Amino acid sequence: MTYALSGALQGAVYDLLQNDPGLTALVGDAVYDAVPSGTLPETYVRLGSEKAVGASDRSGMGAEHRFTVTVITTAPGFAFAKSVAAAVCDALRDAAPVLSRGRVVDLYFHSASAERIDGGATRQIDLQFRALLADE
Fold first, then answer.
1. Pfam families, per this entry (predicted)?
2. Distance between CA 101 and CA 124 in Å, rounded?
3. How many CA atoms lie within 13 A of 41 on its CB side?
4. In terms of Cα–Cα distance, which of 91, 101, 87 is closest to 16?
């Protein structure tokens, strides 16, 4: 097992989302690894939590990473939040992120949850993805 590729995966996912034309058309440059202080835009995307389990075998070291990308918006209703979530999924679908170390063997959407937070004033959609990484 290895967790050594976690930073490389995070950087590659961030770059994919930050540079995707479909997503930037909806949120501009409001894709964050760390949410900045101060006034936030009405809608933004945040990289979230991650869990990794070993996936090494005789051919080499590897791990399965399950990571979250979150859409947060104060726009009324869920329609806009869901369109942003769809753009995130589109940006990562069939993506072959180039890692600074190792490689992505497989990357796919796993699950999602949508809820109202902040007393109903904000919508949040957590998108769960699975990435199988090989350390080569």
1. Tail_completion_gp17
2. 32
3. 13
4. 91
119 inside domain? yes
Q: Closest by alpha carbon to 112, among 91, 82, 133, 92?
A: 82
Q: Which residue, chain included where needed, has tokens 């589109």? A: 90
User: What is the distance between the alpha carbons of residues 42 and 73, in angstroms, rounded to a whole number?
Assistant: 5
Confidence (pTM): 0.92
pLDDT tens-digit map of 55-103: 777 777 789 999 999 999 999 999 999 999 999 999 999 788 889 999 9
Q: Which of 99, 39, 27 is nearest to 70 (CA)?
A: 27
CATH number of the CATH domain containing 50 = 3.30.2000.30
Q: What is the DSSP letter of 100?
A: S
Q: Roughly how many angstroms between the first and final C-alpha of the chain, as a whole number?
A: 13
Domain containing residue 68 = 6-135
- 114, 81 contact by CB (below 8 A): yes
How many domains, the chain? Answer: 1
Amino acid at position 6, single letter: S
Tokens representing residue 43 in the block? 């809608």
- Whether 1 is in a domain gets the answer no
